[in-house]
Design brief:
The structure is a single chain. With about 300 residues, the chain is an all-alpha fold. The chain has a single domain, classed as CDP-alcohol phosphotransferase transmembrane (TM) domain (Four Helix Bundle (Hemerythrin (Met), subunit A), Up-down Bundle). Helices cover about 70% and strands about 0% of the residues. It contains 8 helices and 2 strands, in the order ααααβααβαα. The chain has a two-stranded antiparallel ribbon with strand order 1-2. About 5% of the residues have low confidence.
Length: about 300
């Protein structure tokens, strides 16, 4: 019997299947974005029927939430199975522009300030501003990913994968989806004074999200959290608590989760500035404490 007898041929079908799974999840992401846009348009047409409009807008908000989940899964599965490819990166970027750029921009206009007298034209510009900033954020991410910074030695590429530069576009869109899931009734269903107040608040929120996306604030990537996490006794209970919160009260759980992630970038920056401001005083106190008596 020869040395090669009994060896199994390579199973190319499995490899193709592994590459297919991340792409299929990305296609599902695109489907969620398209579904959100269609429901946002139908909800805008049904504003005369607030109950029907609220149902359609909630469907759109939930679709964005499902897309955030699919977007997190496709990249993680691709990295775990070593099925990353240039094609997948490009397809994912196109999907993100549609689902987390166009869909939330349209949804913010149709559900919110688009039906508020005096804010419709400004709202059109703000939604477009959000879309452009989201596209710029994705372009910058792709450039940074393909051109890693070099370490101080100048020999080995070194990227800090623990953080994103700027607010990622999926959480930005996810916050709007969580708000609509929490309160799906369109602003057109409120009294004129309340609708105008909420419309201005939504305008400022969309502008803030757009600015955070193109900022240089650091946001945690959670790429170190996975099946090989070195802190399972912390990660697993937190995931169980999150799952229970979503199961029993998805409106509150998703809204608090989205707000916490969006806010933690500025919070990290303020914390860093506060620590940097205390260091000179701490150094002086340490030097005075170590100085010999009578000096």
């Amino acid at each position: 019997m020869s040395d090669h007898e009994g060896e199994r041929p390579p199973r190319q079908g499995i490899r193709r299947g592994i590459y297919l799974v991340p792409s299929a999840l990305t296609i599902g992401n695109i489907l969620c974005g398209f579904y959100a846009v269609i429901n946002a348009a139908k909800g805008y047409q049904a504003l005369s029927d607030p109950a029907r409009a609220a149902e359609l807008f909630e469907n759109a908000g939930l679709a964005i939430g499902y897309a955030v989940l699919l977007d997190g899964l496709d990249g993680r599965i691709a990295r775990m199975t070593k099925a990353t490819s240039e094609f997948g990166v490009e397809l994912d970027s196109i999907a993100d522009v549609l689902t987390f750029g166009i869909a939330p921009a349209v949804l913010a206009y149709t559900w919110g300030y688009g039906s508020t007298p005096g804010l419709d034209r400004m709202g059109w510009g703000v939604s477009f501003f959000f879309l452009v900033c989201g596209a710029l954020r994705l372009a910058r991410f792709n450039v940074l990913a393909r051109a890693p910074r070099f370490a101080a030695t100048g020999t080995t590429p070194k990227l800090d994968k623990r953080f994103f530069v700027g607010l990622p576009i999926p959480p930005a869109a996810g916050l709007l989806g969580a708000i609509i899931h929490f309160s799906p009734s369109p602003l057109a269903a409120y009294a004129p004074g309340e609708a105008r107040l909420y419309g201005w608040a939504l305008l400022l929120l969309i502008v803030a999200l757009a600015v955070l996306m193109v900022s240089t604030l650091r946001y945690t990537s959670f790429k170190s959290v996975g099946p090989r996490s070195n802190r399972p006794f912390i990660v697993i209970p937190l995931l169980a608590l999150l799952a229970a919160g979503i199961w029993f009260s998805s409106q509150w759980a998703l809204l608090l989760l989205a707000v916490a992630y969006v806010a933690h970038g500025p919070a990290l920056k303020l914390w860093g500035l506060a620590r940097r401001g205390r260091r000179p005083w701490a150094a002086e106190e340490e030097a005075s404490r170590r100085a010999p008596a009578g000096s």
